[in-house]
């Protein structure tokens, strides 16, 4: 893992590369940059997660609100980020039939009405068959617990995106 290259990035380069590790939250990469040098990929990941954990609840909920719904409007309109599109496609969420899409839209609306933020799940670790059931299950959870669970999913997504980036050509070590 060529952390030397990561540690040599200027601010703009670092945010260009790592700005979407947390969906639509480049502020986090902008903050983590000042923690360099990073001794390895785990250290880099630790700083991303520490930033999230140190936020007040309003900030943590704000991170969740930056996530597009699974199989939602943005997927239909083609306005997803490249990472989100890849993740949602990989989970089969681009090939739902009308009934599946409607069911997910209803569950997403119920979830958002109850918690005030969207349902977030690491799509790469799930699939179209499991998402509605997982959403319905989490819909019943106490708000404080669900906030922790949702942030855990943000971290799973971030871990996978960091692994993609650090394994990408040019950043992978010998
Ligand atoms: N609401 C979401 O869970 N969104 C997402 N999950 C992913 O894995 N990528 C997303 O954009």
Number of helical elements = 10
Using the 3D structure, state the CATH architecture of the largest domain.
Orthogonal Bundle
Which structural class is indicated by helix and strand composition? Answer: mainly alpha
Major sheet characteristics: none
CATH domain fold name of the largest domain:
UraD-like
Head-to-tail CA distance between termini: 8 Å
Please bin the fraction of helical residues: 55-70%
What's the overall average pLDDT, rounded? Answer: 95
Quick overview of this protein structure:
The chain has ten helices and no strands.
Describe this structure in words.
There is one protein chain. With 174 residues, this protein is mainly alpha-helical. It has two domains: 3-62 and 160-171, UraD-like; 68-156, Oxo-4-hydroxy-4-carboxy-5-ureidoimidazoline decarboxylase (UraD-like, Orthogonal Bundle). The chain is built from ten helices and no strands. Helix 4 packs antiparallel against helix 10, helix 5 (57-65) crosses helix 10 (143-167) and helix 8 packs parallel to helix 9. The structure holds 1-(2,5-dioxo-2,5-dihydro-1H-imidazol-4-yl)urea.
